[in-house]
């Protein structure tokens, strides 16, 4: 089975509000991906990630100060996808732009989206009524205030292509300045 990689900012502070819903409604949660905001997916194929890649990522992320952020809104993408949005997406967009500048052959979401919107997925592809119920239960937990201090590199099977025994795993974490 082919695996992929991703760079993300894990958001453990969101888990109390979203974990129960993500476990049912977000396919990435079922394979071990924590609540997160994506920096870059897909990133390099795992077999191309080497010591130079790690060094480049460490240098890039060490140039960016850690930052506080607030998840204060539920929003929707088509298909349907329910997500939490940060009040200021700019720091996440800057992280994505930084990585894409260093690895231009790997555009966000494989180049399939025109505008990258930083978000934390609660559920995707589930019946709309289930997503709306999750939204109603998550909203009272907002705002969620936390800090981004690390970017995590994970690898695992493509979404929806693997049995639940195949899991995403953390390969490395990189500190923000």
Strand order of the largest sheet: 2-1-7-8
CATH-scheme architecture: Alpha-Beta Complex
Count the helices. How many? 5
Q: In total, how many domains does the architecture comprise?
A: 1
CATH homologous superfamily annotation: Cyclic phosphodiesterase
What oligomeric state best describes the polypeptide chains here?
single chain
Secondary structure class reads: alpha+beta
Ranges with pLDDT <50 over ≥5 residues?
Answer: none
What does this structure look like?
With 177 residues, the chain is an alpha+beta fold. It has a single domain (4-175), classed as Cyclic Phosphodiesterase, Chain: A (Alpha-Beta Complex), CATH 3.90.1140.10. It has 5 helices and 8 strands; from the N terminus they run βααβαββαβαβββ. The chain has helices at residues 15-25, 27-30, 51-62, 90-102, 128-138; strands at residues 4-10, 36-40, 67-77, 81-86, 120-124, 144-148, 150-156, 169-175. The strands form 2 sheets. It has a 4-stranded antiparallel beta sheet. The protein has a 4-stranded antiparallel beta sheet with strand order 5-4-3-6. Helix 1 runs antiparallel to helix 5 (128-138) and helix 3 runs antiparallel to helix 4. The radius of gyration is 16 Å and the shape is globular. It starts with a strand and ends with a strand. The model has no long low-confidence stretch (mean pLDDT 95).
